[in-house]
Specification:
Helix content: 10-25%
Oligomer: single chain
Shape: globular
CATH topology: Pseudouridine synthase
Number of helices: 5
Distance between the termini: 45 Å
Structural class: alpha+beta
Largest sheet: 11 strands, mixed
CATH superfamily: Pseudouridine synthase
Length: 261
Amino acid sequence: MADILYEDNQVLVAIKPPNMLSQADQTGDTDILSLLKEYIREKYHKPGNVYLGLVHRLDRPVGGLMVFARTSKAAARLDAQMREHRMGREYLCVVQGETEDRFTLTDYLIHDPIANREVVCEADEKGAKLAILHGRTIERRDGTSLCGIKLETGRKHQIRAQMSAIGHPLWGDNRYGNGIPGQQIALWGYKLVFEHPVTHEVMKFHSMPEGNVWNLYADLLTVPEDTEERTERGKIHIQPDVVQKLEEFDKYPPIKTDELL
């Protein structure tokens, strides 16, 4: 079962485990949307179909934070935040090689049906979609880099495809890099910020990955167990110097599409 960080009668915030579907598909494998619907049905003794709106998705191998809408009104308002780029979603990833301290990637992506992957292409290619991301390198260790990523666009496999295109595929990614089958891709949705659809409170949530290659950077993403500092709802403490680097994302001005044409 997915960990639930917050719920009220309008929204639910949960952590999707890696390798779980965001919603049901033809495989019939377990998906977080169905699990949460069943959780609501049992907890609140709801008969019949339970409404739970899928606001956004995470790729199957990716873990991290997701928000779901418990009413159609909440779904419409959260969807508007997504369309207007007012919902903040940030990621942590471990990539191969040493990345620059700061980077912005502006590409066009298209689906390659033969390779079954997204590839960088020319802007005028039919079906090309603009993809923009900002990156901040937090630390470099053992031939890898820990990066924070902020998306301006939400294309399929965007982080995986764009990082691979600059020669820094994600650790464990055997589709876009040289990961070994069975390795867990090192990409995690660690931060989620949105306006509550009814109260208009700004909601902020954090979640940190662990295990596998993340252990290489564990000291940066956690605090000593003997800390006496109290934690806030849904917030994970990160080392101060790491926080400073990640907060620099707020300094990036949005790139307007018409400025690229």
